[in-house]
Amino acid sequence: LDPMATGLLIIAVGNGTKYVDDFVAQSKEYSGTMRLGEGTPTYDAEGCVNQRLPWEHITDESIQQAAATFVGDIKQVPPMFSAIKIEGKKLYDLAREGTTIERPPRPVTINSLCVWRVQPGDTDSSP
């Protein structure tokens, strides 16, 4: 599990363990927040901001166009700061040791991707 992730943890016991693969294969829904112009070495909010770039030229339309390119069946290279295991080791453990390894692209299906702007002071964070 990703240490920064929150959500539902399914625990199976006894005969229920037969169905764990069925649960894992189900569609999942993710949500997140991004801040334009800021980067961290961990690609998440856990890392300290180590990069700031201008972002004012990025329009809502260009963000929507970029988001649309991720919808469908794609191949995704997992980041080093990921809970995925390769050869029995979690990538984020290797990354924290300063080790980078080759990661094969994995098939991912994204059914939809919604992006919307939230201004400081907004009380509703959904579209």
Structure description:
The protein is α+β, with helices and mostly antiparallel strands and 127 residues long. 16% of the residues lie in helices and 14% in strands. It has three helices and six strands. It has helices at residues 20-24, 60-68, 91-96; strands at 38-39, 51-52, 72-76, 85-86, 89-90, 106-110. The longest helix has 9 residues, at 60-68. The chain is globular and about 55 Å long. The mean pLDDT is 86.
Topology overview:
Blueprint (H helix, E strand, L loop, with lengths): L19 H5 L13 E2 L11 E2 L7 H9 L3 E5 L8 E2 L2 E2 H6 L9 E5 L17
Antiparallel strand pairs: 1-2, 3-6, 4-5
List keywords for this structure.
6 strands, alpha+beta, two-stranded antiparallel ribbon, 14% strand, two-stranded antiparallel sheet, 127 residues
Please provide the count of β strands: 6
| Strand arrangement in the largest pleated sheet | 1-2
Please tally the helical runs, counting DSSP H or I stretches of 4 or more residues. 3
Describe the global form: globular
Report how far the terminal alpha carbons are from each other. Answer: 29 Å
Whole-number mean pLDDT: 86
| Major sheet summary line | 2 strands, antiparallel
Share of residues in helices? 10-25%
Determine the structural class based on helices, strands and strand pairing.
alpha+beta
Q: Over all CA atoms, what is the radius of gyration?
A: 18 Å
